[in-house]
């Protein structure tokens, strides 16, 4: 089972897995069965690496999401909702979501957003 699949299984069990400094936290841990706890212990380095990668993906994901907002000319309310949605996206889904945003929106923004940025830079 891949680290992404393990993280997905943990989330489906109702448990949040987070890295906190040099340690990891499972909350509420009592929801995990023995089999899943053993799977986590056996794959902890790979899971930690996966979560670190997912965390580093977060800033790229946020930028890509804002490019989607630019594409649609979204206002601040929609952008704040997008930020909240990205923050709440489980770690194992972030790489796929980032790939989607990059494929669908890349660095493209709508013409008005590009002109606004250009005007600020020129002014």
Quick structural overview:
The protein is built from six helices and two strands; from the N terminus they run αββααααα. With 123 residues, the chain is mostly helical.
Describe this structure in words.
This protein is mainly alpha-helical and 123 residues long. It is built from 6 helices and 2 strands; from the N terminus they run αββααααα. The chain has helices spanning 3-12, 34-42, 44-72, 76-87, 94-105, 111-122, and strands at 16-20, 23-27. A two-stranded antiparallel sheet has the order 1-2. The longest helix has 29 residues, at 44-72. Residues 108-123 have low confidence and may be disordered.
Write the layout of secondary structure elements.
Blueprint: H1 3-12, E1 16-20, E2 23-27, H2 34-42, H3 44-72, H4 76-87, H5 94-105, H6 111-122
Antiparallel strand pairs: 1-2
Beta-strand content bin: 5-15%
Radius of gyration: 18 Å
Order of helices and strands: HEEHHHHH
Instruction: Give the assembly state of these chains.
Output: single chain
Strand order of the largest sheet: 1-2
**How many angstroms separate the termini?**
54 Å
Helix content: 55-70%
Structural class label = mainly alpha
Number of helices: 6
Low-confidence stretches: 108-123
Mean pLDDT reading = 81
Quick one: overall form? elongated
Largest sheet: 2 strands, antiparallel
Tally of strands: 2
List keywords for this structure.
123 residues; mainly alpha; two-stranded antiparallel sheet; 6 helices; elongated
């Amino acid at each position: 089972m891949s680290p992404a699949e393990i993280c997905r299984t943990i989330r489906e069990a109702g448990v949040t897995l987070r890295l906190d400094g040099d340690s990891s936290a499972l909350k509420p841990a009592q929801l995990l069965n023995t089999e899943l706890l053993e799977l986590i212990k056996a794959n902890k380095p790979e899971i930690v690496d996966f979560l670190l990668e997912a965390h580093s993906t977060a800033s790229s994901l946020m930028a890509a999401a804002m490019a989607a907002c630019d594409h649609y000319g979204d206002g601040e309310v929609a952008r704040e909702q997008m930020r909240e949605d990205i923050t709440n996206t489980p770690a194992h889904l972030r790489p796929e979501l980032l790939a989607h945003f990059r494929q669908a929106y890349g660095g493209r923004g709508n013409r008005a957003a590009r002109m606004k940025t250009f005007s600020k830079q020129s002014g």
